[in-house]
Design brief:
Blueprint lengths: L1 E2 L9 E4 L4 E6 L5 H8 L5 E2 L1 H11 L6 H21 L4 E5 L4 H12 L5 E6 L2 H12 L5 H21 L9 E5 L1 H4 L4 E4 L30
Parallel strand pairs: 1-7, 2-8, 3-5, 3-6, 4-5, 6-7
């Protein structure tokens, strides 16, 4: 767990393994979208609002979002699973209160030999509400309260238990308002290249074995 809250020097770069998925969590209005925009050159971004807007575009204008919210969430979940299965690194926009979603995603990644990492923007509800006001878009009060309760529980558990509070994550990095405004770069390390020393010369007339092509060793 890396705690970058407070007025402290920040690393120049956050580096993650190849193929990792970084989940950026925080309350609505905490600055997740701004952080993801800052890091968008590093990896594709999966944002539920993209799915929300896509669903809204095909629905009648008179139909409230609450009516088709379950469908939008299902589409977002399917989109997230599909993107994660593709094997590339990924940035995910998340409220931080749904541990079941992180757990499911982590199991999917673990089966592929990949990791889930968690970044939390801990700015508090007052700052998050101010952020909603600044962007001119508000989460419904019940939704905000539910996310606030869930994220507060996670933060208390992290303060008490450390990274054991989020066993699905290979790492947890915490930012607050001060450090959020000074975000470092985010990069993913390149995949390891095959060692040329393991190449073996295929003898003429001998078939490839083990399902491998091109004369590679086992």
């Amino acid at each position: 767990m890396v705690d970058l809250r407070g007025d402290i020097p920040l690393p120049a770069t956050l580096a993650y393994p190849p193929g990792a998925v970084v989940v950026v969590s925080g309350l609505p209005g905490s600055g997740k979208s701004t952080a993801l925009h800052h890091w968008a050159d590093a990896a594709p971004v999966i944002d539920p609002r993209t799915t929300h807007l896509a669903c809204e575009a095909v629905m009648p204008a008179w139909l409230p979002y609450a009516v088709y919210r379950p469908w939008a969430r299902l589409r977002h979940f399917h989109r997230l699973r599909t993107a994660a299965r593709d094997g590339g690194h990924l940035l995910v926009h998340d409220c931080g209160s749904r541990s079941w979603l992180r757990g499911h995603l982590a199991r999917l990644l673990r089966a592929q030999g990949r990791e889930l990492h968690l970044v939390i923007l801990d700015v508090g509800p007052t700052e998050a509400l101010a952020g909603q006001h600044a962007r001119g878009r508000w989460a419904p009060p019940r939704t905000f309260t539910r996310h606030d309760r869930g994220l507060a529980h996670l933060l208390r558990s992290l303060d008490t238990l450390g990274p054991a509070a989020a066993p699905e994550a290979a790492s947890v990095t915490l930012f607050d308002r001060s450090s959020r405004d000074r975000l470092p770069r985010l990069v993913f390390e390149p995949p390891a290249q095959p060692d040329p020393a393991v190449r073996t010369r295929q003898e003429p007339g001998m078939p490839c074995t083990g399902g491998r092509m091109g004369g590679w060793g086992p």
